[in-house]
Automatic annotation (TrEMBL):
Name of the protein in its database record: Contactin-3
UniProt source species: Silurus meridionalis (Southern catfish)
Domain Ig-like: 50-139, 141-229
Every Fibronectin type-III domain range: 242-340, 345-442, 447-541, 546-637
Keywords for the protein's UniProt record, in alphabetical order: Cell adhesion, Cell membrane, Disulfide bond, Glycoprotein, GPI-anchor, Immunoglobulin domain, Lipoprotein, Membrane, Repeat, Signal
Quaternary structure and partners: Interacts with PTPRG.
Length: 665
C-alpha cells in the first residue's frame, strides 16, 4: 500500500485512490497506562479499474527460437477486465501459432526471429483501462563446439577437460562442473581444480590428479533461455592399493610360506609383488623376494627362502603394475623361524701379542641374527704348526671375542695353526679357515748403543743410535724417552719410531733447557732395556722482537725491501740472518728467500696480489714475523712505481696499494 494514499488522523484511517489490493483485514490498536484493546474490520473492494502494478510484463523476455512462449496478462480489476494484445501497433489475431486464452494469456508456438518485438497487453472494464508492455527477444540455440572426452590418465599428471560453446551474443552464459553428481567448489578445491578459458569457454583444469579424482565429470552450460551439458568419464591409473591379510602359513628354520589378499589394481592390472621382511636386527624393511601375480582363488601365496634360523620376522607385501609400486600392506604377525645348528663361522680370526708364555687368539663375534638358536658359544682349536693334534677350548658366551692360552713351556713367538667354530643347543657349526697366529714374544733384551743427542733449535733435539743386529728377540722399532730432571726420571716424554730407523727428532721442547734422553728397542711384548742416558741443552729461543721500520720500493715489477736489524736479548739466540716469505694470491704458492742482509729484492709477476712478511733467523729457530704487507693488483701497465714504509702499524703508499694486515699470517 502506498503511504501517500493513507492518512491516519484522530484515530481515523483514510485511503484515497482505492485499489483491489487495498482489500483485507484491518485492526485498530488503542493503548494507555491502564491497558490495551483491539478492534478489527474487513475492507472489501467491490469495484476497481484495471491495474498492472502487481503483475507487469517483463521489460525484456528472451526466448529460444523454435520454442513455445507464454505471456501472462493478469491485471487487478473488479469487475474482471477484458484483455487484448498487440505487437507494436498491430492487434494480434488468433491463428495456428498465436493463441489468446480467456484469462488473457498469450501463447506463441514455434517462435521465430520475426516474432520478436514489443508486446502490449491492454485491459479494460467499465471503470477504466490499463496496459503493460515488454520486449520479446528471440535468440539462436547455443551449441557446444568442444566438450571433454573420456580418457585414461596416470596419477600425478595434470589435464584440461575442454568445454566450449557458441552462444547468441544477446545471452549471458555461465559454466559449472559436477564431479560424480556433486558441483565442484572451485574455491574449496583450488588445490586440484581450476576453471580456465575465456567468456565462452568453461575448461576444467585438474592438477596433480589422484586416484579419488576418477569418475564422471559433467560440464553444465546455463544461458538465459536454456541449459546444456556434456560429460566424460575419467579413469585414473595409479599404483596398486595395499594388499591385505598377510599371514605366515608355515615356517621352517630358513623358509616361510606367506598368503595375502590382493588390493585394488587402480585401473592398471597388477604385474607382480615384492615381499619385504623386517627383524630386530635390520634397519627398516628389506626386500626378500619378488613374485609374479599367481592367484589361488582370492588368495595369493609365495614361499620366502634363505631366512636366518631362530630370528623373529615380520613380513609385508607391495603390489606393482605398469604405473609403479603401490603402498605396502599392513605387517604380518611376528613369527620366529625354527632353530638350527650354526651355519656361519666366526670371521677375522687372528691374534698374537700378549705376555710371555701366552697364545692370544681373537675373532669377530657372530651376530645374534646368525647364531641360529639358544646356547650359542665358540670352539677354539689350535696346534703348533706342523703337528696333527688339535687342542680345543670351549667358550659358552656369544659376545666373547678373545681367548688366551697360558703355558710356561710355550716357546716365544712360535707359529700355531688356529681355527674357531661355533655351536648352540642343536650342535656344532662350521669352523673358520685355518690361520697362523704366533705366541707372545719376549721383549728385546739388548739396549741400543752409541746414542748421540744434539740440539737443533730451541724446541728440537735430534737423537741417533746404532741399530741392534744381534738381538735374539724380534725388534719392531725404537722408543726415545726424555726428561728434564735427572733426579726424577719418571717425568718422561716418549717418541716411538718403527722399522729400522736410527734417528728421530724430538720436538715441542722448552728453549735453553737441559734434557736427558735414552733409547730402547720394542716389539709386541713391550719395550726392552734403555741405553745409557745422554743429555743435550736446547738452544736459546729466537728473538721475540719482529723486524721493524720495513720500507719498500716498487719499480715496475721489482720490489725492494729494507728493514732495521733485529737485536737479540741475552736470553735469546743471536740473529744469523732473515727469512723473507711472500705468497702469491692467484695460486697461493709460498716463496722463501734467506739472506744475511737487511735488504732484499723480489721480482713479482704482474696483475696479481701478494702478501710479504719478514722473520729473523737464529740458532733457536725463526723469530717473530713483521706485520704482513698486502700488495694489491700489481700491474706494470697501469702502475709505474711506488714507495712505502712500515713502522709499527703505519704503512705509506703511493701508486700501488699496500695494506697492513692487523692479523699475523
Amino acid at each position: 500500500m502506498s503511504e501517500g494514499r493513507v492518512l491516519i488522523e484522530n484515530g481515523a484511517l483514510s485511503i484515497s485512490s482505492l485499489t483491489l489490493s487495498d482489500g483485507g483485514m484491518y485492526q485498530c490498536v488503542a493503548e494507555n497506562k491502564h491497558g490495551i484493546i483491539y478492534a478489527s474490520a474487513e475492507l472489501l473492494v467491490l469495484a476497481s479499474p484495471p491495474s498492472f502494478s502487481e503483475s507487469p510484463l517483463r521489460s525484456v523476455l528472451k526466448v529460444l527460437a523454435g520454442s513455445e512462449v507464454t505471456l501472462d496478462c493478469r491485471p487487478q480489476a473488479s469487475p474482471k477486465a477484458i484483455s487484448l494484445w498487440k505487437r507494436g501497433s498491430e492487434m494480434i489475431q488468433k491463428n495456428e501459432r498465436f493463441s489468446v486464452f480467456p484469462n488473457g494469456t498469450l501463447k506463441i508456438a514455434n517462435v521465430t526471429k520475426q516474432d520478436g518485438g514489443i508486446y502490449t497487453c491492454i485491459a479494460r472494464n467499465q471503470f477504466g483501462s490499463a496496459s503493460t508492455a515488454g520486449r520479446l527477444l528471440i535468440t539462436e540455440p547455443s551449441r557446444i563446439t568442444q566438450g571433454p572426452s573420456s580418457m585414461e590418465i596416470m596419477v600425478g599428471e595434470s589435464i584440461v577437460l575442454p568445454c566450449q560453446v557458441t552462444v547468441d551474443p544477446a545471452l549471458d552464459v555461465s559454466f559449472s562442473w559436477a564431479f560424480n553428481g556433486q558441483l565442484i567448489d572451485f574455491e574449496h578445491d583450488s588445490e586440484h581444480f581450476e576453471r580456465v578459458g575465456g567468456k565462452f569457454a568453461g575448461d576444467l583444469m585438474i592438477r596433480n590428479i589422484q586416484l579419488n579424482h576418477a569418475g564422471k565429470y559433467v560440464c553444465i552450460i546455463d544461458t538465459d533461455v536454456e541449459s546444456l551439458s556434456v560429460d566424460a568419464v575419467l579413469i585414473v591409473e595409479g599404483p596398486p592399493g595395499p594388499p591385505d591379510s598377510v599371514m605366515v602359513e608355515e615356517i621352517t628354520d630358513s623358509t616361510a610360506q606367506l598368503s595375502w589378499s590382493p588390493g585394488r589394481d587402480n585401473s592398471s592390472p597388477i604385474t607382480g609383488y615384492v615381499i619385504q621382511a623386517r627383524t630386530p636386527f635390520t634397519v627398516g624393511w628389506q626386500a626378500v623376494d619378488t613374485v609374479p601375480e599367481v592367484i589361488n582363488g582370492n588368495t595369493l601365496t609365495a614361499t620366502v627362502v634363505d631366512l636366518n634360523a631362530w630370528v623373529e620376522y615380520e613380513f609385508r607385501v607391495l603390489a606393482s603394475n605398469n604405473v609403479g609400486m603401490g603402498e605396502p600392506s599392513p605387517a604380518s604377525a611376528k613369527t620366529r623361524t625354527e632353530d638350527a645348528m650354526p651355519d656361519t663361522a666366526p670371521t677375522d680370526v687372528g691374534g698374537g701379542g700378549g705376555t710371555k708364555s701366552e697364545l692370544v687368539i681373537t675373532w669377530e663375534p657372530v651376530p645374534e641374527e646368525l647364531q641360529n638358536g639358544e646356547g650359542f658359544g665358540y670352539i677354539i682349536a689350535f696346534r703348533p704348526m706342523g703337528t696333527v693334534t688339535w687342542t680345543r677350548a670351549v667358550i659358552s658366551s656369544p659376545v666373547v671375542s678373545r681367548y688366551v692360552f697360558r703355558n710356561d713351556t710355550l716357546p716365544p713367538f712360535s707359529p700355531f695353526d688356529v681355527k674357531v667354530g661355533a655351536f648352540n643347543n642343536r650342535g656344532e657349526g662350521p669352523f673358520s679357515s685355518i690361520v697362523t697366529v704366533f705366541s707372545a714374544e719376549e721383549v728385546p733384551s739388548i739396549a741400543p748403543e752409541r746414542v748421540v743427542a744434539r740440539s737443533l733449535s730451541a724446541s728440537n733435539i735430534e737423537v741417533s743410535w746404532e741399530p741392534i743386529h744381534s738381538s735374539p728377540e724380534r725388534v719392531l722399532g725404537y722408543e726415545v724417552v726424555y726428561w728434564e730432571d735427572d733426579t726424577k726420571p719418571e717425568t718422561v716424554g716418549k717418541v716411538r719410531i718403527s722399522n729400522n730407523s736410527t734417528a728421530v727428532n724430538v720436538s715441542g721442547l722448552q728453549g735453553n733447557t737441559l734434557y736427558y734422553l735414552a733409547v730402547c728397542a720394542f716389539n709386541t711384548a713391550g719395550s726392552g732395556p734403555q741405553s745409557q742416558p745422554v743429555n743435550a741443552t736446547t738452544k736459546k729461543p729466537p728473538p721475540g722482537q719482529p723486524p721493524q721500520n720495513v720500507e719498500w720500493t716498487l719499480i715496475g715489477s721489482q720490489l725492494t725491501l729494507q728493514w732495521d736489524p733485529v737485536i737479540a736479548l741475552d736470553t735469546e739466540s743471536e740473529v744469523t740472518g732473515y727469512v723473507v716469505m711472500y705468497r702469491r694470491h692467484r695460486n697461493n704458492d709460498m716463496y722463501t728467500i734467506i739472506t744475511n742482509k737487511t735488504t732484499v729484492e723480489l721480482t713479482l709477476s704482474p696483475n696479481d696480489n701478494y702478501v710479504v712478511q719478514i722473520k729473523s733467523l737464529s740458532g733457536g729457530g725463526l723469530g717473530e714475523g713483521s706485520e704482513p704487507i698486502h700488495i694489491h693488483q700489481l700491474s706494470m701497465g697501469a702502475q709505474g712505481s711506488g714507495i712505502g714504509r712500515l713502522n709499527t702499524l703505519t704503512l705509506s703508499r703511493l701508486l700501488v696499494t699496500a695494506l697492513v694486515a692487523l692479523n699475523a699470517s
